[in-house]
Amino acid sequence: MKYGYFDSDKREYVIDKPDTPAPWANYLGSPAYGAIISNNAGGYSFVKSGAAGRLIRYRFNEQDRPGRYVYLRDDEDGDYWSASWQPVGKPLNQYKSICRHGTGYTQIEADYKDIHSQVLYYVPQDADYEVWKVKVTNNGGKARKISCFGFVELTCESFYEQDQVNLQYTQFITRTYFKEKFILQTINENCLNAVNESRVDTRFFGLAGAKVATYCGDRAAFLGKYHDYGNPVSVENGKLDGTLNYNLNPCGALHTNFDLAPNETKEFIFLLGQKREAQANELISRYEDTSLPEKEIDKLKSYWHSRLANLKVSTPDDNFNNMINTWNAYQCFITFVWSRAASLTYCGQRNGYGYRDTVQDIQGIIHLDPEMALEKIKFMISGQVNHGGALPLVKYSHNPGHEDKPEDESYRKNTGHPSYRADDALWLFPTVWKYVAETGNTALLDEIIPYADKGKDTLFNHLKKAIGFSLNNLGIHGLPAGLHADWNDCLRLGEKGVSVFVALQLYYAFEIMIRFAKFKKDSATEKEMTKQKDRFGKIIEERCWKDDRFVRGITEHDVTVGKKEDPEANIWLNPQSWAVISGFADEERSKAILDLVHKELNTKYGARLMSPSYRKHAFDGALALLFNPSTKENGGIFLQTQGWIILAEALLGRGNRAVEYYLESCPAAQNEIADTRLMEPYVYSQFTESVDSPFEGRSHVHWLTGTASTVMVGSVEGILGLRPDIEGLRLSPAIPSSWKSFTIEKSFRGKKLKIKVNNPDGHESGCKKLTVNGTAAEGDYIPASILKAENEIVLDM
Ligand code: GLC
To answer: Which of 21, 126, 336, 555 could link 559 by a cystine bridge, Cβ 3.0 to 4.6 Å?
Structure first.
């Protein structure tokens, strides 16, 4: 069953069947004022922190309620409905709904008994409040009398957890007032006149462009006894009874009513934010001009679309195009900006940026907005401790040069992170490389950046120290110790146990350092890194390769994990894909291990993280055992890793395979099986349940996941073959042999590239001829120095 489609020109996903198998959400604003909204207007908002700045309630893991509700009522016959299908939920043979999720806005239209409504939800660019612009039109032949109610369930206090559980306190600290155009809520109001004014929060829910007829500030009064969001007694009655909350649960509810002649439209705006009374008044007056939202939406669109426009592909596969041009790209920005802050799965409890997650997230936007990436790169570098290890969590309040670290009790207490991860700092290598290669900004290497705890250094030396950290934390056989965990949160290999994934990451890090050192003409570093790389290569060869595969790790008791003869977890995806990505495996071996992966791990929804799942034979530190088989790290399809297998296949030039993996796990390609996948068909998930599950194909943890960036990199660098380096750009697509041609428009170092790839003979990769502005280039490489402001590039495969 399908519930919607992609509107590529508008960069919108359009849901025309509102009874989706899960709430299909969108992001509005930024964590400064963040809002999540589903296709049925469920969701919540917060100021600065989902956990500590929660404005409106949402009941996680239930029925997508409550939300930003707009109710409509026919005042002649008393029939009422909601402007989003839920919460009233009129029969779908009488009620039509179309939800358009766009870049930073969501618009929900409904048609019911000749009344057309449209609610446009957004947070204006850089604003700290939200706007719901409502338009109601009479499409029928007779005049109508209509009431409209805006409703929001406010939290009693900004701390999400307190609001949910500490009821003996939170229910007695809030009041609401009616102020002609808005409901004002105060929290800990008495402190306003006391020393502790900072304790006080005030929120408002207002109406602009229409007159408030009746109001209510108390949830119980709004809903009524034994009523619910779907049938609030006040909407049934056609008026709000003016109850204001004094203790118990507040709400913002405002009612306006009007006559609608045939074809007549009324427009007005609900506003919500955390503001003092005077500011609320000011904002509402501004929005009395109900045309303001149009301008603000244009601004939002041009903000997002101008970034997304930096790469535009047109291939024979629309699913690929929709993802790369808009949705995967937009999700990359969302994960980049929001990290793992808040979603319908994450309640907002994290108080910082996970190191590895964030450094990987950056990779997803480098090709679209390198400036934005640069800022975050520097920020994350400043989260590196002076000994080269990285803080597992860089706090939102990060103060470089003065931070505590995992060695300190205070850090462990504040963040819940007990120690270092083996991989965190090693993610800097591919990320910094991608940034420098995309921009040519090699000056970054010499930029001085502070360490988290003390001192400062050039970025180049930060990278050296990251390698130093791995070298100072070796385990048995001289391989990098797994420490608290590596990329896989569920692997505890023990103090001296070692991770093969990290060994391969380190091998790759040496390679990147060699490239940088060469560029800097720093032959001492180049020599040292080459020596180490070779030395490690030998150890990897000797210890990490068994029979026909790379193993996953060796525990401190010298037990090898991921051997062919193991009854469970005998083949792991990441060491195979990373053996290729890191350049460790030669071509022949690369092909052999990727063939093995395809045979042993691939399923119709993508390649599993490992197989068979743990049931009875897990080693002591295999926390994956906690999960059901075929779930998450226990042999599920951990989607972040699909990006790496796509990239690995593409690096080998095997376009058919690369795109096979791509399509198996591509959300857009699963649009028609939404009842199996459940999640938004425009969004990557963290994982998909695999073959052992009775719900194979069901996907979980939407939006905020590393999948967005790894698949983007696998697609752009891998499938499309856009592989920049310091001096220029290599063009090395790995595509299905069925793609006879495709085009790419790309901004590169301030210049425009128009690339046409011809593949009449059905190759999967390779370059017969490359011309740049009519002149033949050498091989598949375009030196940056020959590029003009605009370039016509033709690649014949
Ligand atoms: C989750 C974590 C990420 C980790 C991955 C695999 O996605 O956010 O840090 O690498 O799981 O365990």
So the answer is: 555
